[in-house]
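Customer escalation, tier 2.

The customer says the design service returned an amino acid string that "doesn't look like it belongs to this structure." They asked us to rerun it and document both sides in this ticket. The original structure tokens are below, unchanged.
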């Protein structure tokens, strides 16, 4: 059953039960009031008539008229139950059913109950024993028919039943309209949701009333759709990078493999006969093997980073790590490029993976030396910066064109070979990508700024307290 009808039926049942309970309570209350009024009226008239009889007076016309107001009848009986006196037109002469007077004569105490005294029986009759100074009267009875109360209660019951039925019908209609109005946004949400496909998550569900439960639910679903859209976009971007990465890696590996295979065939076919050619071929194969080994190592480093390889975090001094990298860079530069190091005035303690950060420093220094002409210089400095540890590497090299600056951290991106110090130094374009990946694993960053012809500056910043994850 639809929710709309379930709400309607539940609402109708609840309202119907409440109305029935109220109607029944009202009916019983009014019934009690009406019947008590009749019984109290009969009792009062019986006591008044008994007082009159015991005073030695008879039921004269005035007294009888007063006592019989409101349909009350009064009967005076002797010790055998014979009627000595009565109000006019009150009790028929035929046999009375369920008389009350025998109990009064037997016990000598007043008694009341239901009996059939009048033509509009049943009646409520109250009997009182009397002992007048003269005469044979022994019992005075006063009674009143239940018929007026019964008729009033029947009319009331009919009105209550009709009113309850009408109220239930109105509640059913009102509940249906209310449920329809409350659930109408659900239909719009369903129709909109059916139009959302995995290929297009940009659509959103309509939020008609943002402050009610359905509105908040719809807004939450829209937020979920936004997160799914962002997740799918990131997944698609990652897949695109992966495809591009695989294509670039295949291309980069193909070049040294082709060169190695060519030199190997040459040596196999005729090159071994010439010692010079043999030496050149072996050197070329060794060079290409080393280049391919570096490429593979770079690819493995990126793959480990992409897979979220855990960091070996420990407290350390970034100045010491930078000093080690500077010494290695000076040895590699072979005095062709000056590498200057300005250590911090005090230890720059931070929480980091020493081997990974050492790798970043080496990449930045190798890059600076590689793109600095002979006779140029590279400056390295380490310092604290608020809650960060900062390593800065500046060179006086060829610089990076403004249009290429955003691309230097892309995988396999390399500067124009004409701008480097020889093709052998051009590398495979993975160093800066690895450096940024390591920095971001530490919740830090590597930034670059450059002026063509004036040099470049690369800055590594990592939080001194280490990554929060």
């Amino acid at each position: 059953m639809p929710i709309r009808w379930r709400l309607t039926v539940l609402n109708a049942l609840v309202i119907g039960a409440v109305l029935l309970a109220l109607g029944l309570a009202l009916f019983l209350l009014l019934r009690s009031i009406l019947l008590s009024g009749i019984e109290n009226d009969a009792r009062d008239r019986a006591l008044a008539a008994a007082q009159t009889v015991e005073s030695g007076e008879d039921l004269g016309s005035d007294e009888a008229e007063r006592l019989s107001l409101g349909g009350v009848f009064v009967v005076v009986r002797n010790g055998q139950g014979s009627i000595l006196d009565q109000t006019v037109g009150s009790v028929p002469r035929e046999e009375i059913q369920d008389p009350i007077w025998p109990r009064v004569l037997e016990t000598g105490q007043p008694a009341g109950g239901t009996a059939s005294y009048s033509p509009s029986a049943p009646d409520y009759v109250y009997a009182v024993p009397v002992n007048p100074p003269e005469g044979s009267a022994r019992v005075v009875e006063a009674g009143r028919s239940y018929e007026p109360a019964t008729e009033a209660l029947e009319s009331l019951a009919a009105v209550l039943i009709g009113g309850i039925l009408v109220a239930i019908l109105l509640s059913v209609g009102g509940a249906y309209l209310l449920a329809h109005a409350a659930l109408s946004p659900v239909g719009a949400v369903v129709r909109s949701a059916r139009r959302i496909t995995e290929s297009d998550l940009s659509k959103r569900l309509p939020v008609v009333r943002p402050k009610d439960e359905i509105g908040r639910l719809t807004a939450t679903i829209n937020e979920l759709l936004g997160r799914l859209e962002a997740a799918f976009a990131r997944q698609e971007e990652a897949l695109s990078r992966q495809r591009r990465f695989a294509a670039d890696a295949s291309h980069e590996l193909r070049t040294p493999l082709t060169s190695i295979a060519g030199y190997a065939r040459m040596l196999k076919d005729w090159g071994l006969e010439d010692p010079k050619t043999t030496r050149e071929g072996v050197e070329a194969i060794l060079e290409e093997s080393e280049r391919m080994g570096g490429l593979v190592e770079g690819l493995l480093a990126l793959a480990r980073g992409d897979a979220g390889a855990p960091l070996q975090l420990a407290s350390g001094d970034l100045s010491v790590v930078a000093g080690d990298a500077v010494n290695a860079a000076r040895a590699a530069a072979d005095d062709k490029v000056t590498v200057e190091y300005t250590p911090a005035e005090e230890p720059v303690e931070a929480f980091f993976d020493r081997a990974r950060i050492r790798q970043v420093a080496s990449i930045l220094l190798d890059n600076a030396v590689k793109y600095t002409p002979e006779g140029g210089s590279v400056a390295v400095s380490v310092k604290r910066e608020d809650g960060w540890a900062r390593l800065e590497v500046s060179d006086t090299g060829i610089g990076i064109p403004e249009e290429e600056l955003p691309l230097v951290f892309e995988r396999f991106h390399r500067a124009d070979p004409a701008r480097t110090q020889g093709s052998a130094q051009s590398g495979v374009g993975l160093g800066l990508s690895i450096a940024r990946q390591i920095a971001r694993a530490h919740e830090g960053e590597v930034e670059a700024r450059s002026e063509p012809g004036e040099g470049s500056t690369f800055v590594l910043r990592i939080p001194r307290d280490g990554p929060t994850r």
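Tier 2 assessment: The sequence is consistent with the input. Residues 197-309 form a domain with the Helix Hairpins fold (CATH 1.10.287.130). The chain has a mean pLDDT of 80. Sent an explanation to the customer and offered a walkthrough call.
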